[in-house]
Amino acid sequence: MTDYSQLGFLMHCDASPDGPFRGDESRGYADSLLRVNRRIHDIVGAMVGRGHRWPDESGSHRDRDATAEAMAKAFGDWYERRHGREPSGDAARWLAGDWVTGTLPGYENAVSPHRVRAQLAYMDDGWLPEEPATVAAYELLPEWVRWNGEQAGVPGPLIERSAAVAEGRRFDTSDCPSFHFRPRREPLPRPGRPPLHGPPHR
Known about the structure:
The protein is an all-alpha fold. It folds into two domains: about 5-50; about 55-165. Helix content is about 55%, strand content about 0%.
């Protein structure tokens, strides 16, 4: 951790539309959430002592906007090579802007079915359905996912699982490993003490 901006995404956490608390949290959840804020202040204090300065929020937004603009441009070039035509400029920029919002540095191109579902939920909730760019963005989303997956070096089959969500399809899980967990019958021995009941059952 070398710069304040790397902490910016830890400053806000909403567990519900009303804020960070729903009302039924465990004591451990509340302790952890408050501990994060305290830890951030500790890190900030240490960095101030080393001569670092906290960047203003507008600078972070400028960095995010510049990243989104660069991603939209690179995606447009890729899309034109692939399809022989340019994508909707507004749709690509809007997708990129929402895609990188709240993303940790270095993970801008990461793709997963969960991230695509979150993007779709955000678009369903916040985008104007009558806007032509909104319609175009829904159509572009599967290819946007494929492009990001390629940039991140994600294997093709995993990219297609995320693209399937963008297209409204169910993705194939037939080749996913199956894990079968059995409840442990014997307690684990404590370090430095012999087992109480011999070796664990197989």
